[in-house]
Amino acid sequence: MRAGTVYTETVIYSAPEAFVADVPYQTAIVTLDGGGRVTARIAGERVAIGDRVTEVDAREGVPFFRKTS
Amino acid sequence: MRAVAVIGVGKTAFGVLPDRDLRSLAVEAGQKALADAGGAPGQVQSFFLGNFAGPSFTGQNHLAPYISTALGIKDVPATRVEAACASSGSAFYHAWLEVAAGITDIAMAVGVEKMTSQPTPRVTEILAAAGDCTGEIRAGSTFASLFAMIARRHMYEFGTRREDLSAVAVKNHANGALNPEAHMRKVITLEQAMAGKPIAEPLNLYDCSLVSDGAAAVILAPLDRAGEFAKQAVRVLGVAQASDFVALDQKEDITTFPAVRRAGEKACRMAGIQAREVDFAELHDCFTIAEIIATEDLGFVARGEGGRYASAGCTALTGERPVNPSGGLKSKGHPVGATGVAQICELVTQIRGEAGARQVRRHSLGLAENLGGSGATCVVSVLGSV
């Protein structure tokens, strides 16, 4: 699984139709250890810029990352 | 290249207009621009329509001739331009290009959007399609969330404060309250602006522009023919369009918009000026952070200083360089496809000295910056008195 560092993040309260049931949810842009960035959903605990995160799941092509314990 | 002038402007009121459809809004703006110029539909030789999502919002496609013919403009090229929130800035750019190149004498650029017939989650979804639907949007991003991530990073790197964002909202609401055609003519306090309901942290309701219906139109002519028309001509001194990645996660640095920098530099070079020389500006405040970054990218202030510049009152109506005297997208409203041309209308109105209560003191040189998506398209225009 990929790992990286949170470059930026937000918690969304006003969502598009398909995501209304998930509100509030966190998304982040993660700088991957191998290079490049990806926009991901954050699972579990909220993260902040600079936090280390690890990929834990991929649902319908969307990567989910969680704070590295 | 020929010198080009704006000879007529017209716009509808912006707002929630349940009795108005897309075509009637665009026709009203076009007719007002023709009346302003003292011109007739038969004189228009090329028609450009800026519209972002008419087909999604209303079901109607093939919009350019649908609107031009309703205006009585027949037989001539009628072209729709789509570049997200910069759709009509780009329509203006292309109309200018034809006139400057000598292909067309009289060109009209109209911008229109009819947004309020859909519920908010559907509007949010339609707007999100201006982002990358295979990546960031599939992950649940909204446009507010993309600019929220930009704001977070700007705060982290430069110490921009929550109250700096709110200072932009307070200022634009104060200006919009003086604009009879603004969507939300409501003065707000800094406390109110800081306490809005959360939309995407750190952005709250008062950091977000409005969902509006509306249209705007401008007519362009070669400067040497401007005397044939009714109003004081305003010269188009420089216009430039630039592009960048659609997805935010492909950008090296999200605290700056390279397309704004490039379009700004090119338009100012064409005009023979430095951006700092402009008397006032209409900047694309789709979210408060976007206005702050635009003041940096255009060179009004140094990188990272935009927040403090706004809080210090430098961009207020009575400040050193007023930004968004119209009220901006925040208060005047943001019918997405109409915004770029509406900015040009405001520059012309201000330069002519016809802006009434919101008139800026020095008004011979104005700049408009129209941003598409999270920075993938930008059009910058510099207009001045002849």
Write up what this structure looks like:
The complex is a heterodimer of chains A (69) and B (386). Chain A is mainly β. Chain A is built from no helices and 5 strands. In chain A, 36% of the residues are buried. Chain B contains 13 helices and 11 strands. Chain B is α/β, with parallel strands linked by helices and 386 residues long. In chain B, strands 3-2-4-7-1-8-11-10-9 form a 9-stranded mixed beta sheet. Chain B has a two-stranded antiparallel ribbon with strand order 5-6. In chain B, helix 4 (87-101) crosses helix 13 (339-352). The interface between A and B is medium-sized, with 30 and 35 residues.
In short:
By secondary structure, chain A is an all-beta fold.
The class by helix and strand makeup of chain B works out as alpha/beta
Q: How many individual helices of chain A? A: 0
Choose one word for the global shape of chain A: globular
Biggest interface and which pair forms it? A-B, 30 and 35 residues
Total strands of chain A: the figure is: 5
Tell me the major beta sheet of chain A: 5 strands, mixed, barrel
Described by its quaternary structure, the protein is heterodimer
- The count of helical stretches of chain B stands at 13
Describe the SSE topology.
The complex is a heterodimer of chains A (69) and B (386).
Chain A lengths: L2 E10 L12 E8 L4 E7 L8 E8 L2 E6 L2
Parallel strand pairs in A: 3-5
Antiparallel strand pairs in A: 1-2, 1-4, 2-3, 4-5
Chain B lengths: L3 E8 L10 H16 L8 E5 L3 H5 L4 H6 L9 E4 L5 H15 L5 E7 L6 H9 L14 H16 L3 H15 L13 H5 L3 E3 L2 E2 L9 E9 L11 E10 L14 H14 L8 E3 L5 H10 L8 H6 L16 H4 L7 H14 L12 E8 L4 E9 L1
Parallel strand pairs in B: 2-3, 2-4, 9-10
Antiparallel strand pairs in B: 1-7, 1-8, 4-7, 5-6, 8-11, 10-11
Helix pairs in contact in B: 4-13, 7-10
